[in-house]
Amino acid sequence: MELEKVHVVLFPYMSKGHMIPMLQLARLLLSHSFAGGDISVTLFTTPLNRPFVAASLAGTKATIIDIPFPKNVKEIPPGVECTDKLPMSSLFVPFTRATKLMQSDFERELMSLPRVSFMVSDGFLWWTLESAQKLGFPRLVFFGMNCASTSILDSVFQNQLLSKSKVKSETEPVSVPEFPWIKVRRCDFVKDMIDPKSTTDPGFNLILDQVTAMNQSQGIVFNTFDDIEPVFIDYYKRKRELKPWTLGPLCFASNSLEDGVEEKVKSVWMKWLDEKQDRGSCVLYVAFGSQAEISREQLEEIALGLEESKVNFLWVVKGNGIVKGFEERVGERGMVVRDEWVDQRKILDHESVKGFLSHCGWNSLMESICSKVPILAFPVAAEQPLNAILVVEELRVAERVVATASDGIVRRDEIVKKVKVLMEGEKGKELRKNVEAYGKMAKKALEEGIGSSWKNLDNLINEFCNHGT
């Protein structure tokens, strides 16, 4: 193999939670080039997403190509090219369907590129498989999930485990056949996932297209590592024809090519964390990702729970739904950051941060484990309840809040109780010890030349380097 001829195309979905790990994958690939070869990476995005992509890949040799996002798409406001500005519950399907209108521009740009060895594209961009097939190179799919949630979903669907004919209650626990020690409930799943849909349902048809394209691809990339979920990785290898490649934790690649220069101007929240560290104070970091839709009632319960817990906290929140007078009452004990993009990894790495109240998006959980910060699991949507099962029950690096059965709201007294468990209790100490052990494993996984994920990436490159147009 001549390493200098390896050319990888990456195409992330237009959502921060999907773009970030793909950008980290770009850095990981390019770090191999500095080890002796010359792997070139071309990343596709749209004009309004380019500044974020360019800033993330600053200092690298990555090529960035932006292709126009379709205009005049029904229901999508003009100038919106990222899901962060959309209500995902109602506009995910039309936004995602609109991306297919980019296909001709995408293929025209591909034809002008040097020979492509393989492409990694987001699973939501199902139509990129057709482009790869037309131009004669392999396509690997990237969903940004872990193997546990994927494997549990697969087992539940294969066995129709939670059909209404078998389970009458939304909260009735049922053992997963291939993993009998794990119990799931209907309320742990998005209804569209477990309830039969009409073949005319737009959401059902989109999922069908995405799954069909995934199964016809040449592999799937997981942002995980072998030592964190070996049982589930083994299940996927045995039960699925699609070959899995575990290349994570990708967040360790985020700074691999940077020169280590400190920020010229520290953000207000980082200065605030420095002050807490100087005083010997511990901080709970609170964030629910860029996409979570949380009701005003739930936001108020979270706020009042944080207020009554008496802990120091840094809360990154969308919008202005927090109860009136909250910030004045908590004073210097808390900081609220509204509608601003923060470097979450830097926050989690800060010495003062000793806990993370998280919505259990997989990127966030990986970052927390890598930073050796225990988690208070507060799953909101999608596969997040399954992610919570992994970190709470399997890895034991997290405690979980419990919603009331009547309305699904996590009440303030539950938040107070569990925050104190995490930040002050004996259980919190145990979780901290466990997460430190997994954090060490995570770092070893990407050790150059010897880590399991590093070796997996070597094998992936070797397998696909002779393919392409």
Automatic annotation (TrEMBL):
This is Glycosyltransferase. InterPro entries: Tudor, UDP_glucos_trans, UDP_glycos_trans_CS. Keywords: Glycosyltransferase, Transferase. Belongs to the UDP-glycosyltransferase family. It is an enzyme of class 2 (transferase). CDD domains: GT1_Gtf-like. The keyword Kinase does not apply. It comes from Microthlaspi erraticum. The lineage of its organism: Eukaryota, Viridiplantae, Streptophyta, Embryophyta, Tracheophyta. PANTHER family: GLYCOSYLTRANSFERASE (PTHR48047), UDP-GLYCOSYLTRANSFERASE 90A2 (PTHR48047:SF117). The keyword Kinase does not apply. Residues 244-309 form the Tudor domain. Its EC number is 2.4.1.-. GO terms for molecular function: UDP-glucosyltransferase activity.
